[in-house]
Amino acid sequence: MRDGKVWVGDQIHDKATDRDGIVTDVRSGTYVLRPLYGGGKEWTAEDGGTLTVVVPLDEAPPRHSPRRARRRGN
Question: What's the Cα-to-Cα distance from 65 to each of 16, 51, 59, 60, 69, rounded to whole Å?
Fold first, then answer.
């Protein structure tokens, strides 16, 4: 989360589509989302109000990324 809002790297639940995913980008207020475990297509959410953070980026375990693990001090 960033300033109390959904942000890149957060695991979310999209109420509008009843799907869980990861925020991969924010473009002009549109959230770009991908499925949690790959497979399936990316989707977008125009309204961040339909997105609920399930696991914020700073609380998520490292995901196969040595750079991310180092950044977290793991």
Answer: 30, 25, 15, 12, 6
Summarize pLDDT for 36-62 with one digit per residue, the tens: 887 789 999 998 899 999 988 888 776
- 3 state SS of 70: helix
Q: What is the DSSP letter of 62?
A: P
CA 54 – CA 48 distance, rounded (Å): 14
Which pTM value belongs to this model?
Answer: 0.76
* Residue 6 burial (C-beta neighbours within 10 Å; 0-12, 13-18, 19+): buried
